[in-house]
Amino acid sequence: PANSSDKALIQLMSQKVQAALVMPESLKEQGKAQTISIWFSVDEAGNVTDVTANTKNKEAKADLEKQFRQLNFKGLKPSVYNGIDVSFVVY
């Protein structure tokens, strides 16, 4: 982040993702913690236009990408790829 407003936006984005995403059942079945990188871009309204979850687990990939498409990131620069690492812990 270049400045404090960028840092605040990143923190809000992280909180939104943590609150919205649910661990896919296929990850629970593996029984181990996992961190998955997600790359995405948004349009002018903040709607996710493209998303890729970086995991070899096909079911988890599809599930996470579907969930992520439902999010809105108003305030992010449109047509630029953004990345976030999402950690899932199995209890």
A few lines on this structure:
The chain is α+β, with helices and mostly antiparallel strands.
Structural notes for this entry:
This protein is of the alpha+beta class and 91 residues long. It has 3 helices and 3 strands, in the order ααββαβ. It has helices at 4-20, 25-30, 58-69; strands at 34-42, 48-54, 82-88. A 3-stranded antiparallel β-sheet has the order 2-1-3, covered by helices on one side. A hairpin with a 5-residue loop joins strand 1 (34-42) and strand 2 (48-54). The radius of gyration is 13 Å and the shape is globular. The chain starts with a helix and ends with a strand. The mean pLDDT is 86.
Task: Quickly list its features.
91 residues, alpha+beta, 3 helices
Layout of helices and strands, plus pairs?
Blueprint: H1 4-20, H2 25-30, E1 34-42, E2 48-54, H3 58-69, E3 82-88
Antiparallel strand pairs: 1-2, 1-3
Radius of gyration: 13 Å
User: Strand share of the residues?
Assistant: 25-35%
Q: Report the helical percentage.
A: 25-40%
What's the main sheet like?
Answer: 3 strands, antiparallel
Shape: globular
Q: What is the strand arrangement across the widest sheet?
A: 2-1-3
Average pLDDT for all residues:
86
Structural class: alpha+beta
